[in-house]
Amino acid sequence: xxxxxxxxxxxxxxxxxxxxxxxxxxxxxxxxxxxxxxxxxxxxxxxxxxxxxxxxxxxxxxxxxxxxxxxxxxxxxxxxxxxxxxxxxxxxxxxxxxxxxxxxxxxxxxxxxxxxxxxxxxxxxxxxxxxxxxxxxxxxxxxxxxxxxxxxxxxxxxxxxxxxxxxxxxxxxxxxxxxxxxxxxxxxxxxxxxxxxxxxxxxxxxxxxxxxxxxxxxxxxxxxxxxxxxxxxxxxxxxxxxxxxxxxxxxxxxxxxxxxxxxxxxxxxxxxxxxxxxxxxxxxxxxxxxxxx
Length: 293
What we know:
- With about 290 residues, the chain is α+β, with helices and mostly antiparallel strands.
- The chain has 2 domains: about 1-115, Aminotransferase class 4, branched-chain amino acid transferase, N-terminal domain (D-amino Acid Aminotransferase, Chain A, domain 1, 2-Layer Sandwich), CATH 3.30.470; about 120-280, D-amino Acid Aminotransferase, subunit A, domain 2 (D-amino Acid Aminotransferase, Chain A, domain 2), CATH 3.20.10.
- It is built from 7 helices and 15 strands.
- The protein has helices spanning about 20-25, 45-55, 65-80, 120-125, 155-165, 210-220, 265-290, and strands spanning about 1-5, 10, 30-35, 40, 85-90, 110-115, 130, 170-175, 180, 185-190, 195, 225, 240-245, 250-255, 260.
- Strands 7, 8, 9, 10, 11, 12, 13, 14 and 15 form a 9-stranded mixed sheet that branches.
- The model has no long low-confidence stretch (mean pLDDT about 95).
């Protein structure tokens, strides 16, 4: 693992920030996670645009895009992994012990690169067991879910409760009890060959892979629509899926101890996972060709 702190790339033990950094004290930061295919970051533009959206929403100054690209590339090059996980974090910076964001000195840029570790084969062959631990997603008037900030306590609590209960992951609900998303993923359900996914207005992150799945579905003739889903709705579905940058598409076979569909990964999962993987490879291939021309 290599960590870049404001342009200085080191091993983890040497990477430091002040304990007065507002990202540490208040979660006053934004971040994005990317991964490589064939050594090339997938959907870099989409991820960095979302980072900019999050920063704008928090009135947090980002480094110039050219600086971000330069430091990301430098960190990937020094880490030198065959395939990489890359996390880009921008904090508001350090300052006095006060909530007032105008007292921060200057933003801090942190880039973490480590070897990409694929999810275990059992995730895709046997499926995920999820629960709904009763943790609500932050209300939009408090911290809008479209902002990918360092304040991730709802997901931390939900995943912790799920693991303690013996599940793989958890789903979050809004204040009316409708499903929003996973702890680090978006939710899709399959009914009679059609895809359903909670609408963004329900309070969830606009996932890069979520958008890709919706586009690929439309291009291939699969009906995909946004619809509010209650927890019990999942037991009427043929399949339930999670999507994210790191896992691509993963099947859910059980919820709160009850089977989903047949209790096994289904055909829509297999089809969408293959489509997402192929689209990612095609995009990075195009990026490689463009950079070499």
